[in-house]
Amino acid sequence: MSVQYYSGETDKAKYIYFKKDGLLQHIRQFHDSVEMIFMLDGKAEAHLYDKTYIMQRGDIFFVDSYEGHWYKHLTSEILAFVLVLSREYLEDFYELYADQTFMTYMSDKKKNQRIFELIERWYGETEKTHIKDLGYANLLFSYFIEEYSLTKRAHKNVREELIKVLLLYTLIITSPCCTQLLIWVNINL
Fold it and tell me: Which residues pair with 56 in a beta bridge?
């Protein structure tokens, strides 16, 4: 079993990371937020647990909450849109499709063309606001649903809750403010 790192920064409220990036993370990681890679150029391996996907121009890779993932460059230069969205951006989707999620690997170039056009338009927005980002996120999710079938979330709620409790426990043990955290845990769990 390999070591995976929890990326807590991405779990902040209203968090969005949206960059055109030539460097995908080689570090094995997981987080509460979802992550999407939209490959523009080059070739890379995308690893989700023990599965490996080869991403190239026009492919989309989706990582759901708390799924262990990492990337490996297969060409010297790559370019991709990297989009990481905190849970707030998916509240409406999860309310409508509680036990479902998006496909992990979407490689149909024809289906992805409209999705990539939306991503380009969103990325090009000069005035960024939370409400506009919510609108784009929901439109993106609707495009995913229209172009690809949804898949069943495999007992994610139990796994997510267990991971949250373990992370909280670790925080309690390493925090100088243990008493306040213990009170919060007893009240909220």
Answer: 43
Which of the 8 DSSP states describes residue 89? G
- The secondary structure of residue 16, as a DSSP letter, is E
Inter-residue contact 83 to 135 (CB < 8 Å): no
Sequence-distant (6+) residues with CB within 8 A of 90 are 34, 137, 141
One-letter amino acid for residue 186 of the chain: N
pLDDT string in tens for the chain (189-residue length): 455 555 566 667 788 889 998 878 777 887 888 999 999 999 999 999 889 999 999 999 999 988 888 899 999 999 999 999 998 898 899 899 988 999 999 999 999 999 999 999 999 999 989 999 999 999 999 999 999 999 988 655 555 666 666 666 565 556 555 444 444 444 444
Give me the helix-helix angle, 130-147 and 109-123, nearest 10°.
180
